[in-house]
C-alpha cells in the first residue's frame, strides 16, 4: 500500500516506520530524504517547502525528524515575538539550557552566530525547522537572508527548512538573497483524502464500514472543505450519529443505503452550523444527544441585535450619515430652510450611489455633533455623557477613530457598522434613515 | 521633602498617613452647618452612612444573585471542559483539540462589567482552578505585552499564595513564552499533587488528583483587543493545548458576531465557543429600583423629578446600573447634608425617637416647611396658634405626622403594585409597562385625574373573566404579604369579591345567550344594502347594546373595578400631599444634574462670561453689557469677540481689547468706576483682511 522509502545511511526499519506514517506523501518524503543525504553529509543550506494548510508539510518533516532521530529544532514564527525567542529555542534544543542562557538580553544575529560557533561541530546534519515562515518577512531585514545561508555563517553542518503556506516569490527581499531549494506539497486529492481518513478507524467497527462512512462524508464536504484537519474533526463529531442505527440493531453493517439515508441530512446540517463554527462542537454533541426536540440552537451570527442607550443610537445614526453623505449635502438634509438647491446641481452623477460602494469616509467630531443635534428630537444639552458615549462607541468598535489618539482638538471618526445594522437601530427609534441617505435619494 | 531638582519642574509630595487619618476623623464635621449643634450633624452622618452601607451590601448581594445563574453555567462549562479533555476514547482522540471558550454576552453597559468579572474570577478561583488571569485590552497592545501579562498574572497570583522561592524563578525566566508557562505549570501541578490536599488550595480542586485544573484566561473587553494580537495568541495557545489545559473567556459587549468579525475561520476553528447570555441591564435596574425605591423599608425617597433624571441618565446615556447607584448615593449624601431635618429620615422607631429630641431650631425649620404650612392652614385658628407657638405641642404633632407618613408609605407601595399588575397587561400600556413608570406618574400628580388612568379603568371593565380573576388573585397575593390594618381590610374585601366571582361560576352561565343576541342583528342585515342603511342599522345595534341590561358578571366586574379605584384614590396620593414629606424626599434636581450630567461647554461659557461665578470674587461682578478690566484677560477677549459678527478682524479685536484694559490705567483702583466701560464700541469692520479673520464661535 505505502511506497517504501529508501536511502543509504539510515536504518531500514526506521524508514519503513516513517513511510507507514506518511501515506500519500511518499514522493515528497523521498525527495526530502535525497536532499538531506546521509546523516553526516552536508545538506543543502536551506529548503523552502510550501503548500496549502493541512497538506502535510509539518507532519512529514516531524515524522522524518522523529523517526530517524535527527538533531533538529522546531520553531514557530507566530510564537517568536522577538528574535531572541527564536535564537533561544534553537540553541536550547541543540545544546541545552545552559548554552541558551549565554545569550545576552536582547541578542543580535551576531551573538547567536558567535555562541553557535563556540559549540562543538555537528557529527551529523542539524536541522532548523521554521514553521509559518511568512512571518519572517516582518522580522528584522537581515534575519531571513542570514537564515538562508546559516551554514556558511556558522561553518557547520546545519540546514534550515522553512515551511510556509505561500510561495517563495513573495519572500524575496529587495536586496536579493541566497535562493533556497523550493519544494511544493500539492493538495491531497479526493482519493488520497479518503485513504488517509480511512486509516483512523474506530476500533470497534470494521475498516470497510469506516471507509464507507468517510466516503459519504467526503461526498458532502469535499466541495466546500479540503482541509484534512477539519475533515477529520467533522468525521469524529458525526461518527456516533452514523453508528446509531447499528448500535440499536436496526440496520446491519452491510445495509449501506439505509445508513446513508440516515446520516446524509445530518451531515448537511453540520455543514451549515458546526463547520462554520456557528455552533461549537460541544453544543453539536449535546444536540445529537438530545435529538430534535428543540430547534437548532442559534448560531453566533444569529445574534446581531445590539441594545444601545437612546442617545448612543442617535449618535450612531448621525455618524453613519456623516460617513456616507457628502458634507456639502448636509445643508439640504438638515436645515429647515435650505432654499432651493437645483436638482441637477445637487445630484452629481458620479457621486450618486457610489458612497456605499466606497465605504465610510472620515468626518470630524463637530460635524457628527451638528448632525446629531438636528436628528435627535427635542433639546439635548451638550453634556459630558454625550462625549463619553462617543468614546464608548469607539471601544465597542461601532465607530472607529481615524485620527491619532494624540489629536485632541478635532478628532476624526468613521462609522463602522453596516447598513442593515443601522436600519435596525433607526427602526427602534422611529427614524427613517433612508430619507436622509444621499445614495438612496 | 526636598525640592532640589534641577531637571524637574514639578515635585510630588505624598501625604503622610498621619494627616490622612485626621481627615477621616473629621469627615462627619462636614455635616455640621453653621447654626446647629454638632450632635445633629453626627446623627445625620451616621444615618447616611448606615443607609449607604445598606445599599452597598444589598446591591452586592443582588448582583451575586443575578449573576448566579450565568456564572453557574459558566463554571459547569469549565468543569466539563477540563474533564472531557482527559478522556481517552476514540472520538476525543480524533478530534482536533479545540480550546474551550466561553463567550460571555454582557451588554453595552461597560462600567458594570468590572463587578461581574471580579465575582466571576473569584468564583472560578474558589471552585475550579487557582489559575485565573484577567486581561484588559489597554494593557495588551502587542503580543509581547499580552504574553507578559498572562505570565505575570498567573505566576504572580500563585507566588502570592505560596512560598517565596518561586519569585526568583519568575525573574530568571527572561523570555516570556508559553514554554516557560508550560514548564511552570507542570512543575506546579506535580508539586501540588504531592502536597497534602486541602492545605493550600480549596479542597475541591484536589478531589481528583489526576484531573488537572485548567488555566483560565479572561479577555475582559474582547472588542477593544487588537484582532491580530488575539489571533496570534490563540494560534500559539493551540500549539500548547495538549500540555497546558487552557480555557478562554471572552467578555463581549455588543454581539457574538464580533467573534466572527475579529477571528478568521482558521483561528475560530481552534476554539470551541459556547455562548452565555447575561441578564439585561434593564432587568437589573428594575430589581435595583424594586429593592430601594419601591419599598417602605428604605426610608430615603426620591421625588419624581430626581428619579426621572436618574432613570433618564440610565436609559439615554449609559445603561449602567453602577452609575445609577452612584446617583442614588449622591442624592442620599446631598439630602442628609443639606436637609437638617433628615434626622427624621430613618426607620419608624428611630425616627419617632429622634422626633422627641428635636430642639427649638429644628422645630422652627419644621414650621417653615411648605407641606407643614399647608397642613397648618387646614387646621382651625386655635390649633394654628398652638402649632406655631407651642414647641412641645408641635413635637407631639410631629410624632403623629411622622407616624402617618410611615403609614402612608406602607400602604402606598402595595396599592401601587396592585394597580400595576392590573394595568400592565392592558393594551397600549396606558399606565406604563414598568412599575417604575407608574410610580413616576403617581408621584407627579393624582393619578386618578389622568386621562390614561380613566381609560385604563374603562378597559379593565371590559376584561374577560378568567383574565381578571388571575390578575385579582395576583393582587391578593401582594396584599397578603403586607402587615397593615388598611391593607388587611382591603384584602378581606378583595377575597370576598373573588369568592363571589367563583360563585358566579357555579350559577348558570349567561354569556352564550349574550353572544347570540349580539350576533343576531348582523345576521338580520339584508343581503344588499347601501351605505346609509348599513350605518343606520349599526347605530341601532349600538344603541341596543348600550341599553342592554348588565349581566350579573358585569355588575360584579364593575364593582371590583370601582373597589380598585377606591383603593387608588385613598392611597396613591402624591407625596406632596403629606405633611413633613420633605424629611424623606430629596428634591433638588439641579444639584443632581449639576453633578451627574456635567456640561463642559456651558461651564466654560459661564466662566468666560461671568468670571465671578467660579472665582467667587465680588469685585468682578458686572451688570449686563458692561466690561470690567479687572476680569481675566481671556474673559475680556471673549466678551469682545461676542460682539462681532461672523468674521472678526484681528486688528480691531486687539485694539478693542487694548482700549478696555488701558481704560483702567492711572485710575484709582478703589474708585467705583474702576475699569468699567459702559458701552464698548468696537470698530469691527465687515471687510477685514482675509488672512486674519476668525469665525466667531
Automatic annotation (TrEMBL), chain A:
Molecular-function GO terms, alphabetical: ATP binding; DNA replication origin binding
Keyword rRNA processing: no
Every ORC5 lid domain range: 210-277
GO annotation, biological process: DNA replication initiation
One Gene Ontology cellular component: nuclear origin of replication recognition complex
Origin recognition complex subunit 5 C-terminal domain span: 308-437
Keyword set, alphabetical order: ATP-binding, DNA replication, Nucleotide-binding, Nucleus
Domain Orc1-like AAA ATPase: 21-161
Pfam families named in the record: AAA_16 (PF13191), ORC5_C (PF14630), ORC5_lid (PF21639)
InterPro entries recorded: AAA_16 (IPR041664), ORC5 (IPR020796), ORC5_C (IPR047088), ORC5_lid (IPR048866), P-loop_NTPase (IPR027417)
Broad class of the protein's primary localization: nucleus
Localization of this protein: Nucleus
Family recorded in the similarity comment: Belongs to the ORC5 family.
Subunit structure: Component of ORC, a complex composed of at least 6 subunits: ORC1, ORC2, ORC3, ORC4, ORC5 and ORC6. ORC is regulated in a cell-cycle dependent manner. It is sequentially assembled at the exit from anaphase of mitosis and disassembled as cells enter S phase.
Entry function: Component of the origin recognition complex (ORC) that binds origins of replication. DNA-binding is ATP-dependent. The specific DNA sequences that define origins of replication have not been identified yet. ORC is required to assemble the pre-replication complex necessary to initiate DNA replication.
Protein name from the UniProt record: Origin recognition complex subunit 5
TrEMBL record, chain B:
Principal location: nucleus
Record has Nucleotide-binding as a keyword: no
Domain Origin recognition complex subunit 3 N-terminal: 1-344
InterPro entries according to UniProt: ORC3, ORC3_ins, ORC3_N, ORC_WH_C
Domain Origin recognition complex subunit 3 insertion positions: 357-588
Any Gene Ontology biological process: DNA replication initiation
GO cellular component term of the entry, any: DNA replication preinitiation complex
Gene Ontology molecular-function annotations: DNA replication origin binding
Subcellular location: Nucleus
Keywords on record: DNA replication, DNA-binding, Nucleus, Phosphoprotein
Domain Origin recognition complex subunit 3 winged helix C-terminal: 601-666
Residues in coiled coil: none
Functional summary from the UniProt entry: Component of the origin recognition complex (ORC) that binds origins of replication. DNA-binding is ATP-dependent. The specific DNA sequences that define origins of replication have not been identified yet. ORC is required to assemble the pre-replication complex necessary to initiate DNA replication. Binds histone H3 and H4 trimethylation marks H3K9me3, H3K27me3 and H4K20me3.
Assembly and interaction partners: Component of ORC, a complex composed of at least 6 subunits: ORC1, ORC2, ORC3, ORC4, ORC5 and ORC6. ORC is regulated in a cell-cycle dependent manner. It is sequentially assembled at the exit from anaphase of mitosis and disassembled as cells enter S phase.
Family: Belongs to the ORC3 family.
Protein name, UniProt field: Origin recognition complex subunit 3
